[in-house]
Amino acid sequence: RYEAKENWITRKHRLKLHPYGAEAPYMQSYDSVSLSVDRFTHQLLRRLNSNGTPSFYNYVKNKKPIPSSILDLGCGEGHWIIDAHASWPEAHIVG
To answer: For residue 38, how many other CB atoms are within 10 A of its CB?
Structure first.
């Protein structure tokens, strides 16, 4: 059962981690530097991708149907999911 918690865990006096500990292990921290790195990495990958979608696989060029179901594990702040929804609005996306 999910129970909302508002107390963040701090490790090594600076890394901000979610308060669920062993219940839901997640290795990324939520400090401002880590979140910025995640956002800038996403922007870099979008610029490197020439087909205008969040996937490096070009569905149109390869004559394949666009994804109908997408699972994003470790989605961070959800930048990729937002792009995926904009590109494939009919897809069912879970992050």
So the answer is: 18
> Tens of pLDDT along 38-89?
889 999 999 999 888 899 998 888 899 989 999 998 787 889 999 999 999 9
Taking the alpha carbons at both ends of the chain, their separation in whole angstroms is: 18
Look-up of token digits 């839901």: 24
Identify the helix (H) or strand (E) that includes residue 17: strand 15-17
CB-side neighbour CA atoms (13 Å) of 56: 5
What's the pTM value of the predicted model, to 2 decimals?
0.67
Q: What is the sign, positive or negative, of the torsion defined by CA atoms of 12, 16, 20, 22?
A: negative
HSE-CB of 63 using CA atoms within 13 angstroms: 0
Q: Which residues are CB-contacts of 92 (< 8 A; sequence separation ≥ 6)? A: 68, 69, 70
